Amino acid sequence: MIKTNYHTHTTFCDGKNSVEEMAKAAIARGFDILGFSSHSMCTFSTEWHLPVRFHSEYAAEVRRVQHIFADKISIQLGFESDYLYALNTPQKSRYAAFKPDYLIGAVHYVMNENGAFAVDESADSLQQNIQRVFGGNVREVVHQYFENEREMLKKGDFDIIAHADLIRKYNARLHLFDERSTEYRAELKSLAECIARAGVIAEVNTGGIARGCTSEPYPSPELLSLLFERGVPVTINSDAHRCEHLDFWFDEAMSYIKKAGYKTIAYLESSEIKFQKIN
Predict the structure, then answer these.
(1) C-alpha to C-alpha distances, 151 to 87, 144, 157, 242, 247, nearest whole angstrom
(2) Nearest to residue 204, comparing CAs of 260, 273, 157?
(3) What pTM does this model have?
(4) Separation of alpha carbons 207 and 92, rounded Å
């Protein structure tokens, strides 16, 4: 099978290895396609997003490494673009100057008049921010997270949706909400329908397991089943921030996907969605 990963971070944002180091590690691990996806807001930056002034440098470095290893691996240029209300929506037109091969759409933030925060920073900060920004209203945080994803899918223009239920990252530890509740399951169903309508690939993201935060990938078994029922294509991404995690839990992820009913896995080639049978 063609071995791919489109969700890779480097020292240009919050990764620990350079573009070239990641490419060499991917070659050693037998990857056929490696896509780089620095965190980006495009119009502004945070401490863990690619600074706007370095977007061109990042793109040039990925293309340089692409050329160096062209006979060994297909290197692709991408961005993980955050949805943040009117401030930033993943849109390919915003990145046209860099000619990316693909775009990942992601939701990390929730916000209101009291402020904004990323739901995946840390367990402690999540608890503190829910209290500080939402007055402890976990139900509203969960609803807003999924509503942001639905809005991103309606308004955005991208190829892959990242970690579709990232809101679960610390839930097994903190027990903030009931993932079996009727209300939560309705959010999943609504999200799955929006993903299907948007025509994007949903990633099976193993990064939460690699970093010791979850025991299962994103999406959960229930959400993955809902995606399968609606014909949403999936691909396996590691969300790697260091070389050793590039293909973390990939064999297990393949079994995870098959258990949900999938017979094929998607990959991107020349910005087109293609499929290969799962062995």
Answers:
(1) 13, 10, 11, 31, 31
(2) 260
(3) 0.98
(4) 25
SS (H, E, C) 165-216: CHHHCCHHHHCCCCCCCHHHHHHHHHHHHHHHHHCCEEEEECHHHHCCCCCC
Token digits of residue 203: 């990633």
- Residue 177 CB neighbours (<10 A): 17
In this predicted model, what pLDDT tens digit does every residue of 6-35 receive, in sequence order? 999 999 999 999 999 999 999 999 999 999
How far apart are the C-alpha atoms of 128 and 144, rounded to whole Å? 17
pLDDT in tens, 74-121: 999 999 999 998 789 999 999 999 999 999 999 999 999 999 999 999
Largest CA distance in the chain: 55
CB burial class (10 A; 0-12, 13-18, 19+) of residue 93? Answer: exposed
The H-assigned helical ranges of 11-167 are 19-28, 55-68, 123-134, 138-155
Mean pLDDT of the chain: 97
Q: Are 79 and 106 in contact (CB under 8 A)?
A: no
Nearest to 44 by CA among 7, 86, 11, 99: 86
